[in-house]
Amino acid sequence: MADDGQYRFYGELARWWPLISPVEDYTEEMAYAAGLLRGAAIPVHEVLELGSGGGHNAVHLREHFTMTLSDLSAQMLQVSQALNPDCEHHLGDMRTLRLGRTFDAVFVHDAVSYLTTEDDLRQAFATAYAHCRPGGVVVLMPDETAETYEPGTDHGGADAADGSGARLLEWSWDPDPADTWTVTEYAFLLRETDGSVRTTHETHRTGVFAREVWLRLLIEAGFTADRVTEQTTEDRTPRDCFVAHRPPGP
Fold this sequence. Notes:
Mean pLDDT: 95
Low-confidence stretches: none
Number of strands: 11
Number of helices: 6
Oligomer: single chain
Strand order of the largest sheet: 3-2-1-4-5-11-10
């Protein structure tokens, strides 16, 4: 995931990411994402992921594509580099990143949910357009849209062979449904290899926009765009996914 520079979750706690959100949890979702990425008008070989976080998406997508990964958090990129040593990594904000080259496809997973204003989205879509070849595709998979958002709780975590472990409690709610952001409270129990356990808590703010906003801003950026409903067997609301095609030609 990307972060805005203030979240310890993606900074000093980044080393816990493989236990908080295990790689295997992404298998089905990334298989679906790979199918969307192949929907470009050109063959898709090279993919740029914006907001790649700890690299758990790339572990699965690199089986199909040559992945270039970017994230705002240097600590999360270090986690990703350990998992994906053959992938190219870049430190950068999805709103302003410019690598000076293009790719067959651009992928943005739930890191896009940390954009909380329409201007944030507009900038990120401009980045995606700048890095997408004519005939290429951009696939975005936000956590929620205004139509799918539901307050609630979730939990997770795993143990490592060295005796360390992590547990997560997630509580999401919307203080003001009239604006474009919601709040998620995270509580972590973190067990070190010596058996000592500490707790930490922080509050995250994430964006929630209507489907119409996503499509309108993608079209304004120069794409043709459609919404598709994620196909999943997981016990959760399927995501709204947005598939944006850059027209062929200059």
